[in-house]
Amino acid sequence: MDDQRIRVRVATYRPDNGYGQRGSTVEGPYLADEEVKVEWQTFFTALADVLWSVDPDGVHYGFQPNGGRAYEAYLRRLEVPADEAKPADYEALGELWAIRERDGSLEVCGFLERRELLLTDILRASAEGYNTHDVTDVILAAPAGRGGDSGITDWVNFLGGLGLGLVTNAVSMALTGALSRVGLVVRTKREDVAISRLAVTWEARGIGSPYRLRRWIDKREEWSAVEVATRLSMSVQGTLRLLTALGYEPLRDDPDTFVRSQSKRALKHRKRWEQLETETGLFDVW
Fold first, then answer.
1. Which residues, in sequence order, are bridge partners of residue 42?
2. DSSP 4-61
3. Are the C-beta atoms of residues 87 and 62 closer than 8 Å to each other?
4. Does the pTM exceed 0.85?
5. Alpha-carbon distances, residue 179 vs 3, 39, 140, 167, 173 (angstroms)
6. CB proximity list for 147: less than 8 A, separation 6 or greater
7. Residue 29, number of CB atoms within 10 A of its CB
8. What is the pLDDT of residues 213-272, one digit of tens each?
9. What is the spatial order of strands in the sheet that 222-224 belongs to?
């Protein structure tokens, strides 16, 4: 996967329409329509290189205070073949998921973050079904004017409040489960420290909120616990509890496989996660 090509089209900014409005759309016309060879570049670096080559002075796409360019990346939906795609099949970038080659861990960026993800890592995640849009078919146009992500996530209080017991042994978990059924949640300093360390790892990779984590888990009705543990850099035991908290249950004949369940217990777990997510306001726009 070290020799990939992406098609990048850059929409031309329309002149002022008399009402002080300028802009560009995915329909074009285009300043450029190029096939770019990407070796070990990051996805957004490849896009920026094209933009700089066709609009070096920022006439069409102005400069931002941080030195970046004001544009939006529109990607074709994967289920639409390239030769049948219409402008409406290109949607503004929401999330891009990536799987790091070196350790199989998960990384993500949102539409405002432009985290420097390797194209090869993004394609690896797409092959696993994590992405819904084709990163090799991109149109650059005017920003869509969307809001940003919410504030900083307090993972310690969120996961600790769920009483997941990510580092707790089986005996303690049995006690924790019994207490949680009567409305009590056990918290330990060791548990909070473990969550803090995990949160640092997740946030460095763009997994900045429970909402974003849930969005990724919801991409599949069935998961291998080992795969989730690898992607999230968690212990398998902790992952089993995480999947349970999101309403998944293991198959009887295959304890590594968790499926989205409609049992009363699973729905109760799921409802609790979503309620805490809402109450704490720990969610993203995307």
1. 118
2. EEEEEEEEPPBPP-SSS--B--TT--EEEEEEEEESS-BHHHHHHHHHHHH-TT-SSS
3. no
4. no
5. 55, 54, 54, 17, 10
6. 285
7. 10
8. 999 999 999 999 999 999 999 989 889 989 999 999 999 999 999 999 999 999 999 999
9. 222-224, 254-260, 248-251
